[in-house]
Write a structure and sequence with these properties.
The chain is mainly alpha-helical. The protein has 14 helices and 3 strands. Strand 1 and strand 2 form a beta hairpin.
């Protein structure tokens, strides 16, 4: 089974142009199945010898080990993709992963900042240092366009059009979308760009040069942005559960609160499915309920 898995991962890299992160995820998910099979059977079976019953037992083992529903669903998706490949290549005659059903998702409402909290956070970075100007531009851009951290670190000079007030975003699956940029974000980016110093190798890239760089002039990492945000969250005295993704959640919820239609928000977020975006309608409804209960004289 190990050789077909390696062939599948190579196929993802060469023919599907999958990212390194995606391939790493598939490798880990499939390795988990192999380890479980070896532990329960004493040997690694062939891909063609597994049945739906075997994979259901594996799914049950994951549930008993208290894996999150989303994690189990992701592992099952990896199995389905692998067996589709295996059948197409003649490695397996049937797809034992096809009958598997994902566990029901227990959807938690995402954490959202209020308008006042967002404003407080965005004003926290100092405006008299290059790093402060950069950090303010990062926070303004994330909130203005509803970006994931990975999308932000991938922004290049050529992606930002200040005249049209838009930014080109490369999202999941390398799918591109266009998102508006507000005046506050554009001003913050411009103020930072005037002071930033990039590494000569980065500057030589021209319009493909990274917008946001670290103190060595090289592209930032998602982890460094996470650490930066943790510092400002503490300074702004916000809930410690606030994460970089909280700004994206707040972006979507604030748009819906102000009358934006859900399909437009779906496009702005780059969600493939409308169902993914619908979680924010629940957040908006919860906010409306709080306002109602606070303001209506006969709410209680």
């Amino acid at each position: 089974m190990l050789r077909p898995i390696e062939s599948f991962l190579k196929y993802l890299a060469t023919e599907r142009n999958a990212s390194e992160l995606t391939i790493k995820s598939y490798r880990e998910d499939l390795a988990g199945l192999v380890e479980w099979l070896e532990a329960t059977r004493g040997a690694i079976p062939t891909a063609d010898s597994l049945s739906p019953h075997d994979l259901r037992a594996y799914q049950s083992a994951l549930q008993q080990a208290d894996y999150a529903r989303t994690t189990i669903s992701r592992k099952l998706a990896a199995l389905r993709s692998f067996y589709k490949f295996a059948m197409r290549e003649g490695i397996a005659s049937t797809n034992p992963a096809k009958p598997l059903r994902n566990p029901r998702r227990q959807r938690k409402l995402p954490m959202v900042l209020t308008d006042e909290e967002v404003g407080r956070l965005l004003l926290t970075p100092p405006g008299d240092t290059v790093s402060g100007l950069r950090d303010r531009a990062i926070l303004e851009t994330m909130y203005s366009a509803g970006l994931r951290v990975s999308e932000l670190v991938g922004l290049q000079d050529g992606d930002i059009d200040p005249d049209e007030q838009i930014v080109r975003v490369r999202g999941k699956g390398r799918k591109e979308r266009i998102s508006p940029l507000g005046s506050f974000a554009l001003k913050a980016i411009d103020a930072y760009a005037r002071k930033r110093k990039r590494h000569p190798q980065s500057d030589a890239l021209g319009r493909k040069a990274p917008v946001f760089v670290n103190r060595f002039g090289r592209i930032l990492t998602t982890r460094s942005i996470g650490r930066m945000l943790e510092k400002y969250i503490a300074t702004a005295e916000l809930d410690s559960r606030t994460s970089p993704h909280t700004l994206r959640h707040s972006f979507a919820t604030h748009l819906l609160d102000r009358g934006a239609d859900i399909r437009s928000v779906q496009e702005l977020l780059g969600h493939k499915s409308l169902a993914t975006t619908q979680i924010y309608t629940h957040v908006s409804a919860a906010n409306l309920r709080q306002v109602y209960e606070k303001a209506h004289p006969r709410a209680h």
